Amino acid sequence: MNDLSLATGQRSLGDPDLRYPLWPPLTRGCPASSTDTTSYPVEVDYDYDRVPVELFQQPVGSGLDRWAPLLPPLRAPGLGEGGTPLIEIPADGVFIKDESRNPTWSHKDRLNRVAVSAAAGVGAPGVVVASSGNHGASAAAYAARAGLRCVVLTSAEAPPAVNSFVRSYGAVVLSVPTPARWPLLRRIAAETGFHPVSNSTTTHTGHAFGPEGYKTIAYEIFAEIGVPAALFVPTGYGELLFGAWKGFAELVRLGLAPATPRMFACEPAAGGPLNRALAEGLPATSVEIGPTDAYGINCPVGGYRATVAVRESVGRALLVDDAELAQAQQDLGRSGLWYELSSAAGLAGFRQVRDEFDGPVVCVATSSGFKDIGVGGVQPEVVDPDWDVVRRRLRTADIAC
Amino acid sequence: MNDLSLATGQRSLGDPDLRYPLWPPLTRGCPASSTDTTSYPVEVDYDYDRVPVELFQQPVGSGLDRWAPLLPPLRAPGLGEGGTPLIEIPADGVFIKDESRNPTWSHKDRLNRVAVSAAAGVGAPGVVVASSGNHGASAAAYAARAGLRCVVLTSAEAPPAVNSFVRSYGAVVLSVPTPARWPLLRRIAAETGFHPVSNSTTTHTGHAFGPEGYKTIAYEIFAEIGVPAALFVPTGYGELLFGAWKGFAELVRLGLAPATPRMFACEPAAGGPLNRALAEGLPATSVEIGPTDAYGINCPVGGYRATVAVRESVGRALLVDDAELAQAQQDLGRSGLWYELSSAAGLAGFRQVRDEFDGPVVCVATSSGFKDIGVGGVQPEVVDPDWDVVRRRLRTADIAC
User: Fold this and answer.
1) DSSP, residue by residue, B65-80
2) CA gap B229, B250 in Å, rounded
3) Surface of A (372-401) touching B: CB under 8 A
4) Chain A residues touching residue B138 (CB < 8 angstroms)
C-alpha cells in the first residue's frame, strides 16, 4: 500500500524537544510531559525538505492519498474522503467548507482514514472507539473497508437516525452508560489488542496520527482561495481546529503561504473547556457541561492541541448558544445546505465577530443534518388535497395564487 | 450568470425530426408525438461542432459549471454538485459511483441544478415538485440557493428522517394522499406560475432539461476509467439511466469514446414498468406495483427515455427483489458504504449477470442510507458495562478476549 509518507516520528506537543519513533502511535499522548492533571498529545513530524514541489500543484479532488507525503503512512484503503467543496454564502460574505460531502458525511472521515491506517500499521485485529455519533460511524466504515473489526461504545442518548447509521457498517455496537465508555475502551483495547481511535486520557490527547488527516482541509482551501483571514471551526476536543491550523502552518514552513489564518474555535456555551482554559491560562481543562442540542461538540474535556492552534494563530475561543446555532442552521438551510446543529457553530461564531474581518473567511461545516437530535420526529400533518384548502395554505405562506 | 451553453433547442424523443426552440422548457413532453397512452419526452440538442476540445481535459471536481457547454443554460447557482468518487469494491470486481456525495446526498442534485436553472430562466417565482424523498429535498435546496420559493407535495408514507430532510430547506411542504399529488402539481403550476420540476404526464416525461444534468456522471466516469463495459443503474422513471447513457453517446459522437457502455436498468421486482414495456415492445407503460422497501424507485409508470437508453446500448432491464437488495445493501455497508435500499439496486442487478462481463463495470449508488425506511427505528439496548458482560458480547461476535 501507500508508503510515500515523509513522516519521521512523533513529537510531544507538551515539550517539542521530546521526540519518539513513528511506531507505535502513542495513543495515550506524550508519556514524559503529561502530568496528573494535563495530558499532552503528540503530533507527527515530517522530512519537510523532501516534500515534492508538485504536491500543491495538483488539482483538488477526493482521496487523501494525493497528500500522502505529508500524512502518516496510509496503510488502510480510502473511501474517497476529502476534496469537499467551498460554497460561497453571499448573505454572510463567507465560504462554507462543506464537510458533509465526505464518505460518511462528516469531517471525521479525514481523521479515520489516518487512524485506521495506524491500526493496520501495527497489525491490530480491529479498532475500538467511544462515540455517540460521527466518529464511531466513520471508524466503523474505515475498519470495514480495511477488513478490520470495530467495536463502537455508544451512548443510549444518541439520536435514533444516528443509531441506524453507526450500526450500518457491521461494527459491534454497544450502548453503555456514558461515563462507562472510557474505562471500557481501555479495557477492550488491553484485552483484545484492538487499536483505540478515540481518547482515553485525562485531558484530551486522542489519536496520535488521526488529527494529521485534518491538515488536508487547509491544503484544499489554500488550493482554492489561498489563505483566508480566518477559519471558524466547530470545536469539541479541538482536533479539527488543530489539524486545519497545522496544515496552514506547514504551508508557511514550506514557503508557500505568508501566514496562517486566525483560528476561531466555536464551542457550545453550555460547556467550552477551551474557552475556560484560555481564560485561566491553562494548557487544557475540563468543565461542567449544561444542556445543549449541539451534542456533537459538547465536550466536558478539552485538549492542548486546541490551545496551540488558537495561541499560535492569534485566534480566539467563542461560545455560541443554542439560539445562535439554531439561527445559523436555519439560515444555512435557506441557502440550500442542511447541517447538524453542531456544524452551524462556525457560522454562528463568525457572526459574533464579523466586523473584525474584511478578507475572505471560511466556516467549516462538519456534518449533514441527518445526524441531529429531533430528526425523524416530524409528524407530517396530512393536508386535504382540495384546491381551496391547498390555496389557503399557499397564501398563508405568501405564495400568490 | 453562466451562458456558455451550446444548447440549441429541444428535440422530440418520439420523433427526432420534431424540433422546438430551447425556451420555454416543454414540461409536458413533446406535444406533437405524444398520444393518449404514451407521452414522449423531449431532450436538448447542442451545437456539438463548437464543443471546446479542452472540455474533457480538465480535472474532475465538483460543480456542474465545468460542463456548461453541454448543458442547458445554468441560470441558477450551484452547490458544488457532482464530482463524486468512483470506489472500487474488490470483492465484486466493480466500481461504485458514490452519488451520496452530492450536496443533498443523492444524484438528484445533478438534475435539480439544471431544472431549477430552467425555472430561473423562464422567470418563474418558484418551483413545484411531487416527491416523497430525494427529488423534493434537492429541488427545495436548489430553489433556496437561487432565492426561489418551492412547494413540495410529499406523501404521508415518507420515512420520518426524510420528512425532516425535505423540510430543512424552507420549502412549503404539503403531505397529501399519493394519487392527489399529480393533479395538484398541475393546478399549483397553473395558478401560481411555479415551474414544475417533476412529472405530470401519462407516461413519464419529467422535466425537459433536468435529465441533461445526469450526463455529467458519464463525463466523470470517462475521465477516470474510460468507457466501462456496462453501467448498472437503479431505475424508477429512467431519467438517470437515460442521462448517463446520453453522456456516453455524446462522447462517441464527439469522437472521444469508441462506444457507450451497455445500460442495465435495475428495477424493483415489485413493479418494473420498463421491464414490462421492453417485454411487450411498448415505448413505455405502467404496471401495478406491489410492496417493497425500495420506495425511491418503485414507480408504477415508466418513461420512453429509459427504453431508448436500453435499446440503443443493447442493455437490459433487470428486476431485483427486496432480498437481493438487502444483501447488496448489507455488503456495501461491510465495505464502508451506507446507501438506501433503492441505491443498492445497481449492485444487486450486476450480481444477476456478473458472468457476462470481464471489463470494468460501474454500479451507480444513488443516495445515502439515512433516507431509508426503518432508519431511526433502532431501539438501542443498553448493555451493562461490567467487563464479564461485555466480554461475553464480544466473544459472541467472534472477537477474541
Assistant:
1) GGGGGGSS-B-S----
2) 17
3) 372, 374-378, 380-385, 387, 390-391, 393-394, 397, 399-401
4) none
Q: Is A180 in Cβ contact with B145 (below 8 Å)?
A: no
Give the separation between CA B324 and CA B50, rounded to whole angstroms.
45
Measured in angstroms, the CA of A173 and the nearest CA of chain B are apart by 9
Q: Write the single-letter amino acid at A285.
A: T
Pairing outcome for strands A126-130 and A42-46: unpaired
Q: Check CB contact under 8 Å for A172 and B397.
A: yes
Angle, in degrees to the nearest 10, between helices A239-253 and A108-121: 80
* Closest CA relative to residue A318, chosen from A336, A344, A293, A286: A344
* Neighbouring C-beta atoms of residue A3, cutoff 10 Å: 9
- Whole-number Å distance between alpha carbons of B67 and B56: 9
Q: What pLDDT, in 10s, does the model give residues A275-331? A: 999 999 999 999 999 999 999 999 999 999 999 999 999 999 999 999 999 999 999
Q: Which domains does chain B have, with CATH numbers?
A: 1-106+207-401 (3.40.50.1100)
What's the Cα-to-Cα distance from A107 to each of A263, A343, A395, rounded to whole Å?
17, 10, 41
Cell 478539552 found at: A302
Nearest to B376 among A125, A160, A334 (CB): A160
- Look up residue B327 and give its three cell numbers: 444483501
Assigned C-alpha cell, B230? 456496462
The ipTM (two decimal places) reads: 0.96
Residue A165 has its nearest CB partner, among B144, B369, B382, at B369
CB atoms within 10 A of CB A381: 9
